[in-house]
Queue: 3 jobs
Job 1
Amino acid sequence: MKLAFVSNDSEKSQGIKDYFQTLCHMGRFEGDDTDPDVVISIGGDGTLLSAFHQYQDCINHVKFAAIHTGHLGFYTDWVAGEAEQLAQSLINDDLVNVSYPLLQLKVIQGERSSRRVRQILCLNEATIKQVTATFICEVFIGDELFETFRGDGLCVSTPTGSTGINKSIGGAVVHPSLNALQLTEFASLNNRVFRTLSSPLIVTQDETITFRPISNGHSTEKLVLTYDNLFESAEELKELSFKVADERIHFLGSKHKRFWNRVSYSFIGPVKGSGHEI
Ligand code: NAP
C-alpha cells in the first residue's frame, strides 16, 4: 500500500509522521508522495483541507485517513494514541470506507475576448466577499433568476462543510448522507428597496446555483473568492456556479459515523447520559 503524509508542524504530528515513515522504511508500506493509495493527514480539519487540495487530482482513487493531534475535528477520525491501530488496520485492510459529497465550483473571469474558465473542487465551502462597498450579484437557481443579492457576500457549503463557516453565519448543520448544497448570506441588505431571502437555502444534487456579480461602480471594489482554506482576489469575475460534484471524498475510518454525536459534543459539550462515543 502506497502512503503519503500531510501534517502540521506540531511535535505530536511530526512524531506520528515519523512513526509511519519508519514503517515505510521497514517495508510495511511504500512511501509515495505523487500517486498514493492512502493520504494520512495528521493535525486538524485545516490539515485535512490542505491534504484534500494537494491530492484532489487523484480524488477518484485516493482515500484519506485523518488523525487529530489537537481538539476533536469533524474529518479527523483517529486520535493520536490510535496511530498503531490505524497502521495495523491498514495492513489488515479492515477499515470502513465512507464517502462524502464535494462541491464543484466553476469560475468564469475576464472579458469575452480573454475569458478564463476553471473548475475547482471544494470540501467545505466556497465564499465570495467584497472587501469594500456593497457586493451586488444576481443569484440564479437553475436558469431562473432567484434574487438580486446586496450585502457582504455569499457562501455555498457542502454537508460536511456545514459545521464550518456556514454554521457561524447562521446556516443549518446538514447530515453528510444528503447530496445537497447550502447557500448562506453574509450580512444581506434588506429594506423597502432591496430584498433577499435572508435565510439559508438548501438545493439538491440536480440543481445549480449561479452568481453573476454586478459592479456597483465603486473604484475600490475588490472581490475575494475563498475555497476551503484557500483564497484569491477575484479580478474580472463574471460568474460563479456551484453544483454537487460527481466526485466524492473517501475516508478510511473505524468510526467515521455518529455524526450528530460529534456535532453535539463539539458545539454543546459532553451531555450527561447521552452515551457519546466520539
Ligand atoms: P482557520 O481559520 O485556521 O481555522 C478555522 C477553524 O475551523 C479551525 O478550528 C478548523 O478546525 C475548523 N474547521 C475546518 N473545517 C471545519 C468543518 N468542516 N467543521 C467544523 N470546523 C471546521 O482555517 P483553516 O484551518 O484553514 O480551515 C478553513 C475552514 O475554516 C474554512 O473552510 C471554513 O469552514 C472555516 N472557517 C470558519 C470561520 C468561522 O467560523 N467564522 C472563519 C474562517 C474559516 P481545526 O482546528 O481542527 O483545523
Job 2
Amino acid sequence: MKEELKALGEEAKKLIEKSSNIDEINNIRVEYLGKKGKLKNILRTLGKLSPEERKELGQLANRIKEELEDLLKEKTQFLKKKALEEELQKNRIDITLPSHWIETGSSHPVISTLIDISETFVAMGFSIAEGPEIEKEEYNFDMLNIPKDHPARDMQDTFFLNNGEILRTHTSPVQIRTMLKQKPPIAIIAPGRVYRKDADPTHSPMFHQIEGLLVDKDVTFRDLKGILKIFLESVFGKEIKIRFRPSYFPFTEPSAEVDIGCTVCGGSGCRVCKGTGWLEILGCGMVDPEVFKAVGIDPEEYTGFAFGLGIERIAMLRYRITDIRLLFTGDMRFNHQFKGIR
Ligand code: FA5
C-alpha cells in the first residue's frame, strides 16, 4: 500500500507539472484530493491494517496530500500569472503612438466681433432686435425719409429682386420695424447682414452692420457721443483715437460719421485707411422728426439717436486685416489664425 501511495503521489506530480491551464489543475485536484478522489479511496482501506501500519501510512498519505496541495497552489499561481502576461501582451497599448488628430473649429473674426459688440451694448441695457434681409423699399428707404427720387438712394447701390422687394442695404429698416410695434422708451441694437453693389479692399457686396436706436424723453447728442465712446473704448482699448465728422443721412439730423485712428498702420497711412490714417466705421445722428412722424411717434415729446456700424471694418482694425475680401474667401489658412480669439 505504501508503494501504491507513493506511486499515486508521483503520478499526480507529473500531471501537475504537465498541466497547462487552470481547468486541468482543478481536475487534478478533484481526481486525486477530492472527497471521492484517488487518495481518499486508498485511505478508506487503512482500517484493515494494524495500528502501526495505519499510523505510518496515515502520515505518509498526509505528507503526499500536503505536498500535492502546495504544488497545485504553486502551479495555479504560475498559470494565472502567465495568463495575465499573455493577455497584457495581446492587448498592449503603445502610448507613444500619436493620437487621432481632432480638428477643432474656431469662431470667425466677424462673428467674434459681432458677439463682443452686441455684449457691450446688452450690458448697457440695449436689447437685440431682428429684421429680414429681403426687405420692402418702404422700410429700407421711404419711411427713413428717403423718397423715390431722393439722390440719397444712389448712396447705397441696391440689389433689386423680381418681386419688387430688395436686399436690405443697411440695418436701419429695423429701426422702422421696431418703432412701428413698440412705443418709447426704446433701446435696441439690430445686428445682421446687408447687401450693396460694392467691392474693393474695404467694401464687400455682403457685409454686417449693427444698428443702434435709443428713443426716450430728453435724449441728446451728448448721450450718443457718450455711448459710442464707451463702446469704442471697450472694443479697441482706452487709447483709441476717435473723431466725429459732420455728415449727412436723410434719417438723422444732425448726422455724423465716426472715424477711428487706423490700427493697421498706427495713423501713418496705409492701403486700409487709403493713406489718411483714419477709417470710417459708423454713421450716426439724432433721429429725424420726419422718421418719427412716419412711425407715429410725436417728435415734440420724444427725441432719440441712431447709429449703424460696419462690423467687418471693426474686425479688420481689431485684427489688422488688410483686405475685407479675406473675411469671405473661406481660406482655412486665414481662418485658422483666429483660433482661440474667443
Ligand atoms: C448706413 O448704412 C446708415 N444706415 C448708418 C446709420 C444708421 C446712420 C443710423 C445714421 C443712423 P453707411 O452707408 O455709411 O451708413 O454705412 C455704415 C457703415 O457700414 C460704414 O461706416 C462702414 O463701416 C460700413 N460699410 C458701408 N459699406 C460697406 C461695404 N460695402 N463693405 C463693408 N462695410 C461697409
Job 3
Amino acid sequence: MTTVTGPKDLRSQPDSNSFLSVQDLHVQFATEDGTVRAVDGLSFDLARGTTLGIVGESGSGKSVTSLAILGLHHRKTTKITGDIHLAGQQLVDAPRSILQKLRGNSMAMIFQDPLTALSPYHTVGHQIAQTYRQHTGANKAQARARAIEMLARVGIPQPAARVDDYPHQFSGGMRQRVMIAMALVCDPALLIADEPTTALDVTVQAQILDLLQELQQQTGTAIILITHDLGVVSNIAHEVLVMYAGRAVERGHVREVLTAPQHPYTWGLLSSMPRLTTPVDVPLRPVGGVPPSLIDTPTGCAFHPRCVYTSAVPSTDSCSSVRPVIAEHTSRGAACHLTAEQRQDFFAHTIKPRLG
Ligand code: SF4
C-alpha cells in the first residue's frame, strides 16, 4: 500500500511499511537562465511487490525523480534535498561507494532505448555476466551460467546459443528483454522502468509488460514505471502518481484514477488518449496551453494557466495564489482547491461525455 503527502517538510521518519520512501524531495539544477526546479516537494511511499506508475508530460519531473533515487545526478550541478530511504538506507547524500553498491544489487533501471543502454561492442552475455560479477564476486563460469539463466528467464529462445550474440543481432523487443535480464541479474528489490515499451509495437509492448508482472510475482520486486502512457499504466500498475511541474497532483489506486480522476490535469491526460470507443472523426483533445517553465513556475496551482475548470467556471483567486497539496497520509487525493463535489460534478457533466 502506498500513500502520498503534500510538499510539506516530512523528513522525520519513513513509513515503516514502505520499502522505498521519498519525502519532500526537491531536485534543482543551476542554469544560466536561473534555477530549474525539476522536482518540487515530492513525497510517496512504495511497498515491496507493488508497482507505482508515475505519469505526466515531458518535463514533469518523472525521470529526474528516478535518477535522484538511483543517485545518478551530477552532484556538482544538481542540488537535491529531502529524504529518499530504500530499505531504511538514506540515499540523499549517501557516499558514491554505497550508491554504486546499491545500484544493481538493490535497485536497477531499465531504459527506453536498449540500443543506447547496451554496449554494441560486447556480447549480451558478457554484459549481463559483468554486472553479476561486479556485484557478487562470482567467477567467469558462474557469471556466464547466470547470464544464460537470466536470458531464459526473460524468454529469449535458445539462451545458451544467443548468449554470445551482440545487441544488434536481436530485435527491438528481444533487446528490451536482454536489458531486463541485465537489470534483474542481481535480483534487485527495486526496479525503475523508464518508458520501457515506448519504442516497441503494441504486441511486443504487451509481452514486455506481462514479463515484468511475471517477474514481480516471482521475486516480489517493487517497480516504478515511468510513462506518459496511461494505457501502459492501466495494464500493470497498482497505484498511480500523476506529476505536473515537478509536483504530485493526483494519487490513487489505478482503477480509481482512471475511472474517476479528481484533478483537472488528469482529466486532460485522459481526454488526450485515443480510445477504441472514440469515433474516428472525433478529434483528440490535447491539454491546452504549454507545460510551464520550471524556472518561473506559475504561482499558486502550477496548472492554473491551463486549467479547463477555471477557464469554464469563475473560480476563486486561490488557484493562482495558494499552492494546493494532496492531503497528508491519504492513499487517494488530488492537489486542487475545488471541493470533491465541484470536481465530481464537472467531471460527470463536462469531461466524461467527451471520453466516450
Ligand atoms: Fe484548476 Fe484551481 Fe484545481 Fe489548479 S487548483 S487544478 S487551477 S481548479
